[in-house]
């Protein structure tokens, strides 16, 4: 596997052009393939498990999405550090190896999960408790390296390798899920399928020269400096992961036993947001590189991607309301019933989170780490408080996911408006 991109020097890329349409197309194709794989895993699990069993699986799926979503902070900081090397003169001084730092973060995070598990695992994981904890810890350690490698590849314009890593991750999950469905492994097999992609970075390093070059890259500055920036990104990415992949965990924590109704709501939330949030999450490298390139016009650079998101989202709202209930019943069975109004509102909520994702990427590119994390944390806190309202499950889910992100968007835009361009 080869990949055209900027040549590597002793410490980094010698050149890096603006994010091109070709790079977006390549990552877009990989995103589409990854999204189909994700849908396939959810489809197989929903067909194989009854709604109550699917809700148990969905909580683990969400828990893994939560912790790996936080690890995406390593992708964001790695992308920003590598991309910024193009625009600043690199002085002699300490260097940081992003993948080694990611390995240390991964090991530390896995240890925290394992040691703290007795305090929370009994409330979160109803079945296969200790297997779930072990898979969560080991899977997160591997994903930290996965995320850092994605970030370096994005900073170097190595979009083919970037897409290959995404697709390998998703394909591994599908392989295990299909095997589980065929042999009747049940819930345990889908737990393994959830974390199977955590070894994708090893496969890329074994097969891709571009991947090996990226893994050896050094960035300017010491480890402490890298970790300082990454810590804000990780905090914000963790907060975003609570609202995105980890929402089933948040919903269960604020609702108690979800039962069959919870399984339907979780599936509806997942399906209505995936068309927008899966591509945006996968294209974080493209977005941050774009905003770094357009650093002199930070707010103006948001207009085009925000317009695209709003336009696609509006079409999604109409489609969800019109044909969503039929699609849900046809694809997953009569037990999964939700009305068109709920699906339309949930799609609108997905647009709000997608716009928050865009403003967050712009904040990261501007090195506004505190504002980035504050925006996502504020949105998550607001959504959590709204979930505690004395309303039925469907209504408070919509209100929390629609209104909470608005708080974070305001924080990000305020910070971007007050930041002077270099």
From TrEMBL:
Keyword Ligase: no
Protein name from the UniProt record: Membrane protein involved in the export of O-antigen and teichoic acid
Superkingdom, taxonomy of origin: Bacteria
Organism of provenance: Mycolicibacterium rutilum
Database matches in PANTHER family: O-ANTIGEN TRANSPORTER-RELATED, PST FAMILY PREDICTED COLANIC ACID TRANSPORTER
Transmembrane stretches, start-end: 24-46, 52-75, 101-121, 133-154, 161-183, 226-247, 259-280, 301-323, 343-367, 374-391, 397-418
Recorded topology in the membrane: Multi-pass membrane protein
Cellular localisation: Cell membrane
Subcellular location, principal: membrane
Keywords, ordered alphabetically: Cell membrane, Membrane, Transmembrane, Transmembrane helix
GO cellular component, one term: plasma membrane
